[in-house]
Design a protein that fits this description.
There is one protein chain. The chain has two helices and 23 strands. The protein is mostly beta strands. The protein has one domain: AttH-like domain (AttH-like fold, Beta Barrel). Strands 1, 2, 3, 4, 5, 6, 7, 8, 9, 10, 11, 12 and 13 form a 13-stranded mixed sheet that branches. Strands 14, 15, 16, 17, 18, 19, 20, 21, 22 and 23 form a ten-stranded mixed sheet that branches. A hairpin with a 2-residue loop joins strand 7 and strand 8. The longest helix has 14 residues. The radius of gyration is 19 Å and the shape is globular.
């Protein structure tokens, strides 16, 4: 039986704003594959989407990187499609590795085709099509941006490292279908989030805490994104920010010394669902560095907010390092986000489903 997934009832943007949002997304969110710098190697770029709420969470990541393996001719690329799905039955998902012969990227716009999966930006709408080869998971979605993007360029991640760049779109509405093992679900108006990252950076001495939240209450006009970049030991913070949008427009950005972060407890799990599946043998079944609660205090220029993300469940992605034989682990954590405070002399409140991502070095 098909299952309808209904998102919150968002405050509609007026037609002019909808067109302006689409134009802004198209002008900032294009592929940066380094065709103009053929002498450089090590470029990486990915498109990440998070769709749904507490009953169904769908995460998809499509990445393209310079293929630096010694056996591969210089200038080749390779891609990967990663999917995680969480519903009442727990976690599922898989990963497809895609070679240069099955990869197509259009620089200067959003178009990536990786074997049977693709992302295209058509008239300001993301069209995402995925059909995994190693797992019976497929979906086709149209994601309409409902907020202006925010872009960060040349963000430093430590001495001697290349910077990272990104664009985030905090609020989209998703429509389409998702099929798992032959059972199809219709998705209508599901809340969604998107980010796009690129650069020549590595994971050599680098970690991050990254999260996004949308309100469960359709009457709330707010959405939030939290970003924090640290060294690998997580003893030094390179940057941190809490971004708030109201009615689709960026409303307040708390940066650096305006933000204080603290962690409480640990998320305890006997086993973590891991993609690729084979990587579980290398990474083990448990992890001990996911905070149960992450508290964020932000204040400055007369504005002040308090926020807390409480973790409920998590899965992980294992990425082989290119600089050594180790592994980088990305924990995708679902939970509840609560934010309260005052900005521009007016109360701010946001409560709802959130997904946070913790990246760090594996064992």
């Amino acid at each position: 039986m098909a299952m309808m997934t209904t998102g919150r009832a968002p405050v509609p943007l007026v037609p002019l704003d909808a067109r302006a949002v689409g134009m802004s997304v198209a002008r900032t969110n294009f592929m940066r594959r380094p065709a103009s710098e053929p002498a450089r190697v090590g470029h990486r770029e990915w498109l990440h989407f998070s769709i749904g709420g507490p009953d169904l969470t769908l995460l998809v990541n499509m990445s393209v990187v310079d293929d630096q393996r010694p056996s591969v001719p210089r200038g080749c690329e390779r891609g990967r499609v990663l999917v995680l799905v969480r519903d009442s039955g727990g976690w599922g998902g898989g990963a497809d590795e895609v070679g240069a012969a099955e990869l197509e990227v259009h620089g200067g716009r959003v178009f990536v085709a990786l074997a049977e999966s693709s992302v295209d930006l058509v008239a300001g709408v993301f069209v995402v099509k995925v059909r995994l080869r190693d797992r019976p998971i497929a979906f086709e979605l149209e994601l309409r941006p409902r907020a202006f993007p925010s872009m960060a360029s040349n963000v430093a991640i430590g001495p001697g490292e290349e910077p990272i760049n990104w664009v985030v779109v905090p609020d989209l509405s998703a429509d389409g279908w998702l099929e798992i093992a032959g059972a199809r679900r219709q998705i209508r108006g599901a809340p969604a989030y998107h980010d796009h990252n690129w650069g020549y950076f590595s994971h050599r001495d680098f970690a991050w805490q990254w999260g996004h939240a949308l309100p469960d209450d359709g009457a709330s006009p707010f959405s939030a994104v939290f970003a924090r970049l640290l060294n690998g030991a997580q003893t030094e913070t390179y940057m941190q920010s809490l971004l708030l949008w109201r009615d689709g427009r960026q409303y307040r950005v708390f940066r650096e010394d305006e933000v204080e972060v603290s962690a409480e407890g640990l998320l305890r799990k006997d086993d973590f669902f891991t993609v690729p599946r084979t990587a579980r043998l290398l990474t083990g079944g448990t992890a001990a560095d996911i905070p149960k609660r992450l508290r964020i205090e932000a204040k400055g220029r007369g504005d002040a907010v308090s926020a807390c993300f409480e973790a409920i469940d998590a899965a992980r992605i294992a990425v082989p390092n290119e600089h050594d034989l180790g592994t980088t682990l990305i924990h995708e954590v679902v939970g509840v986000f609560e934010l309260r405070g005052v900005v521009r002399g007016e109360p701010v409140a946001l409560g709802g489903h959130a997904v946070f991502e913790y990246l760090g070095r594996g064992a």
